[in-house]
Amino acid sequence: VQLQASGGGLVQAGGSLRVSCVPSKRTFSGYAMGWFRQAPGKEREFVAAISWSESSTDYADSVKGRFTIDRGYEKNSMYLQMNSLKPEDTAVYFCAADRRSYGTSRYAVEYEYWGQGTLVTVSS
Is there a contact between 100 and 29 (Cβ–Cβ < 8 Å)? Predict the structure, then answer.
């Protein structure tokens, strides 16, 4: 595992949570990064992505306006600030890295490196 996701937990609906993704064993300089999530019994879905330069971000419609993606000071880490959480946001959240110098992707198949996931549970 070359990415470590953390920060998940249990939160009430309407609350906030910030999940983190930090590299282990290597750097992801020049990589776009993204968050995906998988709820029980459902397929993995795109949540948000950010380009290496941070000039481009992309969000799934279901989280737009509530979630914010950003990269750390040295751009090697990545964070997802989740506000106004809903029970339907409950899932395991995975971070991933995509070797592209420009732009972002919504397609999991284009991401080469993945973290182990962190569980976010939103209670109603």
Answer: no
Token pair, residue 83, equals 């506000």
Distance (Å, rounded) from C-alpha 18 to C-alpha 9?
10
3-class DSSP state of 102: coil
**CA–CA gap between residue 34 and residue 107 (Å, rounded):** 10
Nearest CA to 23 out of 113, 121, 122 is that of 113
Q: Which residues contact 40 (CB under 8 A, 6 or more apart)?
A: none
Q: Give residue-wise pLDDT tens across range 20-68.
A: 999 988 888 889 999 999 999 999 999 999 999 999 999 999 999 999 9
For residue 33, the cross-strand partners are 50, 97
Going 56 to 92 to 67 to 26, the CA torsion angle's sign is: negative
